[in-house]
Amino acid sequence: MTTLKRTNSDDPDFRDLVTLLDKDLRIRDGDDHEFYAQFNKIDTIRNAIVAYQQGTPVSCGAFKEYDKDTVEIKRMYTLPRYRGQGIAAEVLKELETWAKEKGYTACVLETGKKQPEAIRLYEKSGYAIIPNYGQYDGVENSVCMKKELFL
Could you tell me which residues come within 8 angstroms of residue 128 by beta carbon, excluding any fewer than 6 positions away? Predict the structure, then answer.
């Protein structure tokens, strides 16, 4: 059974999972990693989720405000041996629920073309590809997506 904990970026389990995420992305993104890393600082994230299996932290995700109506989903990661079990979808759903509770009506996110499993997760969860936004505008490796949250 998966247990979800709402927390923030001070949580050591969240920080440990993000460290593993960054190691994975450093390999996937190669020379592009430093560009993306500048937008993925976690020091001020107030809304993070950590998923546990039998007390072990196995997955995480977070959001931050993008604008007054929209949050940006950030730092989604699941340990490799726990992938394919629906845990990331649970984390994402909880992030969306939390965002709705705070009055937001949409989520946006950026992922990379070298992360096809993430793109599939987001598409299955109701996200649609949109033009690249903000700092990702014109970045060929980026895939930006959006989902309307219905209250």
Answer: 145, 146, 147
